[in-house]
């Protein structure tokens, strides 16, 4: 066995906490939503029972309205802030009050393809569909086809320069003392600044005061972004849900899911900006495009069959961003004022983002660039280990170490033509 695959499996065992996997010890001691979906795809390669269990444990945190939160607090830990006492939610199992990109259905389709266990897939399909409906009801109440985020953490790209303008309007005052734990585990130069963290907690306080009611949150949200990365992942999830509905005999759901998908497909295409050679998010408070150059602008490759001219423009722009870097693909354009190659989501390269981009490049007929990106990611991991992310200028592994989703991504990426959709 490839020694690195053996190490990847060892990391997943070490981070197992009883049917669910923490991202890494101490820094992230609970079950995170999109982390677990990527991890389940890793398990699907060699242990489908454990892969199902990962998704089942995540679904335990699903709310009555359909939302699957971004953190499920299965066990207590004092190494992370904000904990359950800050979120003040009322779910049976303690959870956070916000969500994360819906990779869940993508992982379920991969797992069902591998295992074909309808009895275990069906309840998870139903959970995924309820969450899908929640996205459109709670985060697109006006029916635009683009779903909105009410907190930067919901993007998964927590500290991205994409939020700088919108987040600057959020006060730094909080009802909750900000007692950061992350900078005790990781160098502060790699983490969000204190000012940004205060804004993050202000938003948590604001929505907790709404009792986490989606309608009240929508009305009170000082941060509201129709986000292109999350919407593109939602469309991919919808495409997988539509396929699963047919495979699982849920034909009555197909038309509903297909209608969601078509509306969102058109909405994403309307966010293409030829002058920027990428797609853009929209700040719903100001009504303005968010033009900060981040990886989000390329994620629609994952879920759209694009015209050749658009694909060519995207790949040309990605090539410019990658030029001269030790590790592609950066999450912020090098040279941009918000570019910080070591700081969380402000420039580093992430294996899971590359995984999504590789899938999208293959889907849109650009296997040569996908292969460059795959080799760059594999080389970084084999050189530096299973770090949370990598400094694209030096290749240094940064953030948390022995990271679960990096391990899962590696196992897929070492397979020829590996991707999230099973093509």
Detailed description of the structure:
With 423 residues, this protein is mainly alpha-helical. It is 45% helix and 5% strand.
Count of separate DSSP helical elements: 15
Strand content: under 5%
How many beta-strand segments? 10
- Characterize the overall form: globular
Q: Biggest sheet: strands, sense, closure? A: 4 strands, antiparallel
Identify low-pLDDT runs. Answer: 417-423
Q: What series of H and E elements makes up the topology?
A: HEHHEHHHEHHHEHHEEEEHHHEEH
Given helix and strand content, the structural type is: mainly alpha
Biggest sheet: strand arrangement: 3-4-7-8
Provide a short characterization of the protein structure.
This protein has helices at 3-14, 33-43, 48-59, 84-87, 104-115, 118-138, 164-167, 194-208, 214-220, 228-247, 254-269, 308-322, 351-363, 367-384, 404-413, and strands spanning 31-32, 71-72, 148-149, 225-226, 272-273, 278-279, 281-283, 289-290, 389-390, 397-398. With 423 residues, it is mainly alpha-helical. Residues 417-423 have low confidence and may be disordered.
């Amino acid at each position: 066995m490839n020694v690195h695959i053996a190490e990847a499996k060892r990391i997943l065992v070490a981070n197992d906490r009883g049917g669910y996997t923490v991202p890494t010890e101490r820094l992230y001691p609970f079950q995170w939503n999109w982390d677990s979906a990527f991890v389940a795809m890793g398990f699907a390669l060699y242990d489908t029972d454990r892969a199902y269990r990962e998704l089942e444990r995540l679904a335990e945190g699903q709310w009555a309205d359909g939302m699957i939160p971004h953190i499920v607090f299965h066990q207590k830990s004092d190494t992370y802030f904000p904990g359950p006492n800050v979120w003040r939610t009322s779910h049976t199992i303690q959870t956070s009050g916000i969500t994360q990109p819906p990779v869940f259905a993508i992982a379920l389709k991969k797992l069902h393809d591998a295992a074909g266990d309808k009895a275990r897939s069906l309840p998870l399909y139903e959970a995924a569909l309820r969450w899908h409906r929640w996205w459109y009801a709670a985060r697109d109440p006006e029916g635009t086809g683009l779903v909105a985020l009410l907190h930067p953490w919901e993007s998964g790209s927590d500290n991205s320069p994409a939020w700088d303008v919108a987040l600057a309007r959020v006060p730094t005052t909080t009802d909750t003392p900000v007692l950061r734990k992350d900078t005790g585990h990781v160098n502060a130069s790699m983490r969000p600044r204190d000012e940004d963290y205060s804004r993050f907690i202000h938003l948590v306080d604001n929505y907790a005061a709404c009792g986490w009611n989606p309608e009240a949150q929508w009305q009170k949200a000082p941060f509201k972004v129709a986000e292109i990365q999350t919407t593109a992942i939602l469309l991919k999830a919808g495409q997988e849900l539509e396929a699963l509905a047919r495979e699982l005999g849920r034909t009555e759901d197909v038309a509903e899911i297909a209608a969601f998908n078509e509306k969102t497909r058109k909405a994403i295409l309307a966010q293409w900006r030829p002058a920027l050679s990428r797609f853009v998010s929209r700040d719903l408070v100001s009504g303005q495009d968010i033009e900060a150059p981040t990886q989000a602008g390329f994620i629609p490759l994952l879920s759209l069959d694009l015209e050749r001219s658009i694909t060519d423009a995207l790949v040309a722009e990605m090539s410019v961003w990658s030029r001269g870097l030790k590790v592609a693909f950066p999450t912020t354009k090098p040279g941009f004022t918000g570019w910080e190659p070591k700081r969380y989501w402000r420039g580093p390269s992430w294996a899971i983002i590359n995984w999504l981009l590789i899938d999208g490049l293959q889907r849109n007929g650009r296997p040569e660039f996908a292969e460059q990106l795959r080799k760059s990611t594999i080389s970084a991991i084999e050189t530096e280990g299973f770090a949370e992310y990598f400094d694209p200028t030096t290749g240094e592994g940064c953030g948390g170490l022995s990271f679960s989703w990096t391990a899962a991504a590696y196992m897929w990426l070492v397979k020829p033509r590996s991707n999230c959709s099973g093509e």
